[in-house]
Structure formats: C-alpha cells, structure tokens
Specification:
Blueprint: H1 2-6, H2 23-27, H3 35-39, E1 43-47, E2 59-65, E3 78-85, E4 90-96, E5 101-117, E6 130-134, E7 137-141, E8 146-149, E9 154-157, E10 161-179, E11 187-189
Antiparallel strand pairs: 1-2, 2-3, 3-10, 4-10, 4-11, 5-8, 5-9, 5-10, 6-7, 6-9
Organism: Klebsiella grimontii
GO molecular function: D-lyxose ketol-isomerase activity; metal ion binding
Protein name: D-lyxose ketol-isomerase
C-alpha cells in the first residue's frame, strides 16, 4: 500500500523526504537530526482498525507534523496528516476527547461523512442535531445524516463528535489539520477496534514507518 501511495499520482502532491526513506537510508541518517520524526511518530500509518478487511474498513495516513504537550522540544499545538481513502473504504465511528480537527477533500471522489454527538455513556446520540462549519458555512444535520464533501471542501469537527467517513466514486486524497494528535489516549471508537494492527509480512521489509527508527510498531 505504501508503494502504491508513493507511486506517481494525478494529484501531484510533493511529500517530505522522510516519506520515502527506506531502512537503509534511515541507517545512514544522523539520529539526533531526525529525532523529531521518531519521537512524534511522523511517517506512514496503515490500519484496518482490526477488521481484517482493509479494502472495506481501513485507512492509509501520513503524519507530516505533530507536537507533544508538556515537552518543550516539540511545542507545536497542531498536527497535519495526509489521508488516502480507497473507493468504498470506510473509517468506523469514533470521536476524540480533546482534539478539534478539520477534515478536507483535496481531490478525487466524494468524501462522505456521518456525524453524531456522543452521549454521556459514549454511545451515539440519535436525538441531538449536529451543527458544523463547512468552509465557513454553518450546516445543521440530523444525527447520522450523510454530509458529502466534494473536492476542495472541508468540515470542522469539534471534540466528542462521533464521525465515520468513506470515499465514493473514486479514491479520495484527504487531509487533516488539527490540534495535537494522540492516537493512544484521545480516540474513542464506538465498537472495539484494533487501531494498530499486526503486520503480515508478505513483501520484503521497507522501513517507511516510524518503526524504522526504533519507535513502536504502527
């Protein structure tokens, strides 16, 4: 999947150099110069959310920037990710306790989202309407009503707002601009989910992910 993502695409998006570093290239880099990439786990992240059916439920991400609250070395209060969403591939219902984020459709097909507030017991609130800003325009939706983002559009999602999304008609090149990202503590999935699945080594190893610099396997 990473090889496919790195291959030439119609979007012509240029990525930072660490996005294409192999394990051999990492071995030649000075660790101190690239410590931020390792410590903040910048790089590729491929997940099937524990489903075992990546083409149906999964996501390919590239974390480009992040910060670390309380760590003076990494004071950024924001994060940035590229999201590659395959046609008809969904990211399941989840919300973030603290993170506010904008989800953007940078090109490709239609990016479809369903939104619902979390109840006190962290289930879907199917009674409360949802108001969100789509490129500065206020939209009010029924719980779980589908919101369609065409290429160029984006939506702002506040904390504790459940969301799921998928791509229609074609692959979507998505983008996320948000507060600092913390996948270990800030995510709440509606159903039990394996956010960091085991990797089945069916191709020669290529150290594109943060694991190549000694971080936890992603």
């Amino acid at each position: 999947m990473i090889k496919r993502t790195l291959s030439p695409s119609p979007f012509r998006i240029c990525l930072p150099e660490f996005a294409s570093f192999t394990a051999d290239i990492w071995a030649k880099k000075r660790t101190e110069e690239w410590r931020e990439v390792r410590d903040l786990q910048l790089g590729w992240d491929i997940t099937d959310f524990g489903s075992g059916r990546f083409q149906e439920t999964g996501l390919t991400l590239l974390t480009l920037r992040n910060g670390a609250p309380g760590d003076s070395r990494y004071p950024k209060p924001y994060a940035e990710k590229m999201l590659q969403i395959q046609q008809d591939q969904q990211t399941p219902w989840h919300f973030h306790y603290h993170k506010m984020e904008d989800i953007l459709n940078r090109g490709g097909g239609r990016l479809c989202l369903q939104l619902a507030w979390a109840t006190e017991d962290e289930r879907l609130d199917m009674q409360r309407s949802v108001s969100v800003a789509v490129d500065g325009r206020q939209r009010t939706l029924k719980p779980a009503e589908t919101l369609v983002l065409n290429p160029g559009q984006g939506v702002c999602l506040p904390p504790t707002l459940y969301h799921r999304f998928w791509a229609e008609n074609a692959l979507v090149m998505g983008w996320e601009i948000s507060m600092v990202n913390d996948d270990k503590r800030d995510n709440r999935f509606l159903e039990e989910s394996g956010r960091f699945p085991m990797i089945q080594e069916d191709e020669p190893k290529n150290g594109y992910c943060a694991v190549s610099m000694g971080a936890e396997k992603r």
